[in-house]
Amino acid sequence: MIDVRSREFAVPFLQSLIQVDTCNPPGNEHRLSLLLYDFLQTAGHDSTVRGIGEGRSNLEAVFAGTGKGRKLMFCGHLDTVSPWTAEAGIYPPHGAVIEGGRMYGRGTSDMKAGLAAMLLAAVSLQQEGIRLGGDLIFLATAGEEVDSCGARQYAQEHNLEELDGLVIAEPTGSRIAIGHKGALWLRITLFGRSAHGSMPQLGLNAVEGMMEVIALLHRHALEWQAHDPVLGTSSLSVNTISGGVQTNVIADRCTIDVDIRTVPPQRHAELRAEITARLDGMKQLNAGFRYEVQELLDRSGVYTQPDEELIRTALELAARAGGLAEQEVTRTAGDYSGAAGEKGADGESSAPAVQGVSYYTDASVLHNHGKLPVLIYGPGDPKLAHQPDEWIDIEAYLDSISFYRELAVRFLGLAPD
Asked: Which phi and psi (to 5°) does residue 216 adopt?
């Protein structure tokens, strides 16, 4: 087999991943699991495909070390969000078109480039006869874009206590990210009473009542807003709304979906209890209203201290690649205060070497309640995720293969001769 790290192999390999439609819903990740399984078989390595539901599966491949060392997991998801329309973009979502040093397609940035790079890094070590001192576990999951069903199944079936580190290949612009915000999604339904549109006084308008609920939520969000120097500021947004039957009928029901992103020290259970208490207070002002709160998603935040060995190793590799100054690595990993945009010696503002990301990842399911060190690192630009004409810089993709490979070698060590 040709060197899997070479441009001649790695670029067509990524194209083959992009050309498999794994838009979620419905996912159909099993198609891509089988492609990866066949690739690994050709490379002389076994893997396990475990079904989750119709047309859906995870793939796991263990690159065994000496059996006595650490265990490091490389994790990426197989699914993508829905494709863009022909009107919204120029390039076909699954065409994997290459132009101007970029590859265009749904999932190029989020996150099939990172997924491919991780797998090629692991296979390249085997290809060259390099045996690690510990186990390198490659996990490709289903369903991350909706409910992390693949990661949840893996967590239920495996002992996460056995892992010593977790690397998530979500897009970070090839920067070192040590955590992400938590995500709490709530669906709030307000029930009123219908009446003829010409006699609104006989009904209780749930659409108009929901306007008060939305205003209440935004006021409350400002009260509990929190800021973390790495992860950023908490947020609340109302992103869907539906209600009413027709123009001349007073709406007896209205539903909104609320997206809450949290940072330490916020706790989701406490926030939900506070929101419920506020809604109870609103109900007292108009006893005719009734509401329901449904939890759609609860993903914990993730944060790893910069002085963890996994993060220090990643920072050193990034510095060696020219991404960071050596003195910045030392400051960040050794005594990071987290002050984003602090002044450097020349008085200019400089970004910290570590960062957080605003989106959530499968790490929220796999980080073993915060006990497992997590590195988030990927070649894609996070601003391109879910956008029309999503693309990946091909050089960044190729560079990331070397980054993941060296990270595994340095964190797990080499097996003794």
From this structure: -60, -45
pLDDT at residue 66, as a whole number: 87
At 262 the three-state DSSP class reads: strand
List, in sequence order, the alpha helices (H) in 61-137.
Answer: 113-127
* Residue 252 φ then ψ, to 5°: -100, 0
**Contact (Cβ atoms closer than 8 angstroms) between residue 69 and residue 135:** yes
Contact indicator for 136, 408 with CB cutoff of 8 Å: yes
From CA 119, how far away is CA 347, in angstroms rounded?
42
Q: For residue 179, what are the contacts with CB-CB under 8 A and spacing of at least 6?
A: 230, 231, 301, 302, 303, 304, 356, 357, 374, 376
Q: What pLDDT, on the 0 to 100 scale, is given for residue 136?
A: 98
H or E element: which one contains 255? strand 253-262
CB 110 within 8 A of CB 386: yes
Query: Considering the entire predicted model, what is its pTM?
Result: 0.88
Contact 103, 394 (CB under 8 A): yes
What is the predicted pLDDT for the residue at 87? 97
